[in-house]
Amino acid sequence: MVWRRMRTGKLMDWTQVIVAIVSLVITGAAVVLWFLYQSVRDEAREAKKAAADVAAEADKKHDSLKSEFGDYKLYAEQRFVTQGALSQAIDGLNRAIESLTTNIRDMNTMFSGKLDSLHRRLDDKVDKS
Questions:
Q1: HSE toward the beta carbon, residue 124, CA cutoff 13 A
Q2: CA 76 to chain centre
Q3: Mean pLDDT calculated for residue range 94-98
Q4: Would you state the torsion angle of the CA atoms of residues 46, 48, 53, 57, taken in this order, to the nearest 10 degrees?
Q5: Of 24, 34, 98, 110, whose CA is between 20 and 30 Å from 40?
Q6: What is the Cα–Cα distance from 46 to 53, expressed in whole angstroms?
């Protein structure tokens, strides 16, 4: 067949030209698709590596913040009064104030009676004079 084409002077007929062009287009498309696939795969690897780096940095920051928060909690426990201790202190103070108030009332009642008797005595002495 090749020999016959050579004799006629035709190298290829239209069917063979179309098949050759389609083959070249398919081969070119396959090459382009292969390079696109490689590019996307490389970008995916880079994105995965960047995500891993960001995750590692976030873990470091999390650990740092966790440590700082623990230090602050210790500082707060050492410096500030807890709610229970504050309640106990206030309760003790309230009991002391109530006791003081009761003592003052008792003393007032006691002195009030003595002052009344003292006034009566003084009035009696003034009346006698």
A1: 6
A2: 19
A3: 94
A4: 140
A5: 24
A6: 10
